[in-house]
Amino acid sequence: MKFFLDTAQIDEIKEAAAYGMLDGVTTNPSLVAKAGLPYEQIIRDICEVCKGPISAEVLGTSYDEMLKEARQWASLSSQVVVKIPLTIEGLKVVSSCTAEGIRTNVTLCFSAVQALMAAKAGASYISPFVGRLDDCGQHGMELISEIKKIYNNYKLPTEVLVASIRSPLHLKDAAKLGADVATIPFKVLSQIVKHPLTDKGLAAFLEDAKSIPQA
Ligand code: E4P
Questions:
Q1: For a 10 Å CB count at each end of the chain, is N or C smaller?
Q2: Is residue 105 in contact with ligand 1, taking CB distance under 6 Å?
Q3: Is 215 among the domain residues?
Q4: What's the pTM value of the predicted model, to 2 decimals?
């Protein structure tokens, strides 16, 4: 399973890169707005720190606007994957990007048939939002299971990128279902590493080590 970081904060990306397990980064307009810098500058900076795929989202809504932005993003770096919303216009853009060899991450996916459409348009990644479905009283992880089954049935090469991850449990369940990628907020990445028994055990070892005789 590939680990992407879901952030536009460069200090978080540097810290996660130091763990040696960072395969890529996803951003969205809300995350970039919080970072408070121009979107293009953020993507350039991220590409310097993480050498994997970096998702940058289009901000237009029409086919022409989105395709223009997709070409601009793709020309910035071969690392850039263009994030496109799962709308009719968006799918047309995905189809054109596929024909031009531009990699895409189709975002805001909330149903299995939406994911099937995105794969047929040639999406490189599909981003189902599990946390936001949970928020609405639906099981987000059931969607991952359905998409994996459908993609497997037809050997569709689109990678399932689990988004809107809110807890370590989301990551565990996504991994059990064989999701290709999890995009993880920095806070959740830190929670995953932590376990109270690890801390307790380490404290006991360090205490006992004090009574080991010196050579
Ligand atoms: C990732 O690509 C998504 O933009 C992100 O995971 C959304 O997460 P949220 O639902 O916590 O905002």
A1: C
A2: no
A3: no
A4: 0.96
User: Pick from 117, 122, 163: which is nearest to 3 by CA?
Assistant: 163
Looking at the predicted structure, is the pLDDT value of residue 148 above 90?
Answer: yes
Domain range for 123 is: 2-209
Q: What is the pLDDT of residue 153?
A: 98
The one-letter amino acid at 57: E
For the chain, the domain total comes to: 1
DSSP 214: P
pLDDT (average), residues 144-152: 98
| Separation of alpha carbons 21 and 104, rounded Å | 22
Q: What is the 3-state secondary structure (H, E, C) of 76-104?
A: HCCCEEEEEECCHHHHHHHHHHHHHCCCE
Residue minimizing CA distance to atom 8 of ligand 1: 164
Q: Kindly state the tokens that stand for 195.
A: 């376990």
pLDDT of 215 strictly over 90: no
Percent of the chain with pLDDT over 70: 100
Question: Strands, E, within the chain: which ranges?
Answer: 2-6, 24-26, 54-57, 80-85, 104-109, 125-128, 159-162, 181-184
Quick check: CB of 129 below 6 Å from ligand 1? yes
